[in-house]
Amino acid sequence: LPVALVLLWIGGLKFMAFEAKGIVDLVSTSPLLSWLYWFADEQQASNLIGIYDWTAFVVLGLGFVWPRWFWPGFLLSFAVFATTQSFLLTFEGAWLRSGVLSGSGVFIIKDLWFIANMAVIYQAWCLRRTGH
Question: pLDDT-based confidence at 121, cuts 50/70/90?
Answer without folding.
Answer: confident
